[in-house]
Structure formats: structure tokens, C-alpha cells
Amino acid sequence: MTSMWAATQCDRFRAAVTALTRRRIEIYRDAGETWRFAESLKSVSEDTAQEYEGRTILELVQNGHDALGDADPGRIAVLAVSGEDGGVLYVANEGSVFAEENFRAITELALSSKAAGEGIGNKGLGFRSVL
Fold this sequence. Notes:
131 residues
């Protein structure tokens, strides 16, 4: 029963992410030169990435820590796997599930679903630097 619930939740999340992403693409495409949001977001993201250079693992671990909340024992796992294309970095935690509100927050400019003072980060810039 638990795996069926998890699969249903995963399908809902995937559908919400897909719908929001498609809608945003339509908005950006239709705005043309009137609203150059995508270009400004790219510029801010590149600036942020330079400021946070070399902090990728730290930022992901901090986000994992924030997701743990009061979880006990609160484990975070980091795994680096080398490969032909440079490899893959996995970071996982036993905290809160990544939800639609989290996706919305990380795809907006300097927003976060965390309130100021709640956890290590709260502006979404550290995560944006990882992107």
C-alpha cells in the first residue's frame, strides 16, 4: 500500500512540475522582447554561481540539513560517481519530501519556501548556484 501511495504522489508531483514548466515556457515565449525575464534570470544565475563557486556540495548538504528539520537520526548521504561524462553527484536526506512548493520556489528568482531564520538558507541563492 505504501509503494502505491508513493507512486501516486510521484505521478502528481511529476504532473505538477510538467504543467508549471510548460506554462512558464509559454509565458516566456509569448512575452518576446516585451519581458526578457529568461535573460535576466540567466544573468542573475550566472552571477550567483560565480559568487558561490566551489560551494556545490556544501550548498546541497545545507539544503539537506534544512530538509531534515527535527528528523531523528537525520542522515544525509553524499555519493560521487565518476563516469565518461564527468560523473554524477548524488545528495539525499531523510527529511521532508521535495514538494511542488519547493519546485516553485527554486524556479523563481531568489525565493525559497523557507522563512527567514528557518534553517541555514532561505533565499534560494545557494540552490540556484548549484543549478
